[in-house]
Amino acid sequence: MTIADGTLGGGGHSEAILQRIVPGGRLIGIDKDEYALGRASERLSEYKDNCIFVNDDFRNIRDIVSSLDIDGLDGAVLDLGVSSFQLDQCERGFSYNQDARLDMRMNIKDKTCAADIVNSYAQQDLTRILRDYGEEKWASRIAQFIVRERAISPIETTSQLVEVIKMAIPAGARRSGPHPARRTFQALRIEVNGELDALKQALGDFVSVMNENAKLAVITFHSLEDRIVKQEFRRFADPCDCPKEFPICICGKKPMGKVVTRKPILPSEAEIEDNKRSRSAKLRVFRVNSGGSYAERTSKNKP
User: Residue 172: which CATH number?
Assistant: First the structure.
């Protein structure tokens, strides 16, 4: 049995998986953050003979499986967004509660950081990012204040940005609800790391390298991600794109499996009490049923 953790992070999910598949099973731990890989490998050291650690983006799962010469995955988990490990590293600049350089790169080898975006993007582009990726009601006003303030002095730290956001959002709107900077920080993090760009493709690629009856579990933390996962899982289960008025399907597209979770699984009150960051988590699961193992399917396509 081979299970992939596409977002290894601190190794919590991987540890729980290994406890259930060892002996005999193996886990592929994937993360584009080399610091996360190092920390997780230490945590999982007792399972080192059952682990393969890969410093890569989970969106490259097809290449990863091919390079490792694996006969398909029997299961996979994706815990999207920023990990607790990254949030707790103050110097990474993910948290609006800690003062640090405005960075937010999951892969420190990437060239563009959050400070680059804040200080160089046009006002209209900042507005679009905050509106589309952060679903921020005050997107236009925050972008306007960012442009105004950066003209005086570059915005280089998380605390500087938080102060700008607080100036932009009227006091009355800041008195209730979540931290006023939460949506802006989410939007910038998504833009820096291209989190939504290839999610749809990545989900399809995971399904394509999974064996029959394998399950893909995806945990999301905001509506943008959850909407994509929900829609893609539905499309995998019913890929027919024939006009609705057609009495029978003529496109020939067959279901790739079944959506296991009709509604997302939400954390219990006890889980939220134990981990406040889990309050917005949603888990959706898809079971693959695509006609045999991955090895059998790929062999049929070989010339």
Answer: 1.10.150.170
Report the sign of the C-alpha dihedral through residues 143, 148, 152, 158, in that order: negative
Report the predicted TM-score, pTM, of the whole model to 2 decimal places: 0.84
Tokens encoding 156 = 């280089």
**CB distance 192 to 105 below 8 Å:** yes
Q: Tell me the CATH number at 287.
A: 3.40.50.150
Give me the helices (H) in the chain, please: 12-21, 34-43, 61-68, 84-88, 114-120, 123-134, 139-152, 158-168, 171-174, 182-193, 199-208, 223-237, 269-274, 294-301
The DSSP symbol for 197 reads: T
Contact 78, 153 (CB under 8 A): no
| 51-54 β-sheet, strand order | 51-54, 26-30, 2-5, 73-79, 210-220, 282-288, 257-259
Q: CB–CB of 233/239 below 8 Å?
A: no
- Going by C-alpha positions, the residue among 97, 95, 28 that lies closest to residue 56 is 28
pLDDT digits (tens, 9 = 90+) for 167-223: 999 988 887 778 899 999 999 999 998 888 879 899 999 999 999 999 999 999 988
210 forms beta bridges with 73
